[in-house]
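Quick start: read one record
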Amino acid sequence: MAKIAIIGGGKGGTAILDMLKDDKSVEVVGIVDRKPKPQIAALADKLNIPIFKDYKNILEESEIDLIINVTGSKKVETELQALNLNDAEIIGGLSAKFVWDLVEQKRQLRLATEKRLDEHQALYDLGIQLTQSHKMQDVFKAIVYKALELTKSPAGSLVVYDEASGEMYFGAAKGFSSRFVKDQVWRIRKGGLTSLILNSDEPVVVSDATTNDSLNNPLFVKEKIKSLVAVPLKAEGKIQGILYIDDFKARYFDQGELSILSLLSNMAALAIQRVKLMEVTKQMAITDELTRLYNLRHFLNRLDEEIRRAKRYGRPLSMVMIDIDYFKKYNDTFGHQKGNKLLKKVALIFEKESRLGDIVARYGGEEFCIIMPETASAKAASFAERIRKKVEGTLCKEEFGCVTISAGAASYPHDADNAAALLEKADEALYQAKKDGRNCVRASKRVKQVNLS
């Protein structure tokens, strides 16, 4: 095993020691540096390698086969040559610099290899995470956070393309003010930055906002974004969105960063496409194919959930059951196509008139149900009367002829204390409305008639 001494504990000596430390064919027996705490000290201490202030001390401690002088000093080189070194060889001057350069190149190559391995491991971990994610928001956040980690960037976002509306909206963002993503929905402007990115097959880079008009958008200016990389997310030729990596200073993004972002974007686009398909499939399973309202199975499940929630928090809950008057006669007169069109029209009115938290469902045939959380009996009856008037006022003016509805309302805990009983009470109230001549609203038996006109 060759025994080596390093003269000089600065950058050069540190680089050489770092490369030689794992080489089993050599042993670094000591380092010489006159500074009290040279740069090499931390690594030398970790490897239990002594540091000497004088050349003679190291020669006295052990036999040396090779001395590497990386000080670059002519004086040191002369002093070493004057010593009695037996058969030890000295590498100094240009030779030492050549060795240093070789060592540095090898070190940089090793670091680059380690970085690539780390990046691929990070992408592998992201792939596992995306595969296990079933919520769109989790996918968006995972993509943005991993992209920022890989590029060591302070901010970034993912914007999603809605093919149906042709609009872009924020899916996830990190590193920005709260106003940056609040209610941000925009259409693609021809010739704008978004359009440029979506029509590109490679990352779009803006290294310095002061020399590029692309970042003169007021939103970018307010956030003081000075540079960015924008990567289009495409899967099977379809646009899924854009991944933005931003910095608040001018920055050059190297080819390695762009390459890893391109790989990440391919994974991201496929993951977004997969979750979108899952959500569509899930939505199809719980909605009525014709009206796009919730179907009976989902309605019954939600009714049980909402009753349990109402019991837990001691809150009221109401349900309205609705029937289109004389629908069978309408179908027989105008045909099933017109009948289906009528069902869709009525469903749209119910959906528009209902609140955000209400659950609107097609119960079956021409019957509909609406669950109204946090709603007492009187308000439910008032709501039912409002939609009755809306249907009459809207559909009696169109090609459907004069279409009306009957409705029955029941409430928890006023009329029933469980889901099955609530359904029964609402159905009884609806039957009473039909019995009373249709085109009216009836609540539970305690409220004989609702006349709010």
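The domain at 133-284 is CATH 3.30.450.40 (Beta-Lactamase).
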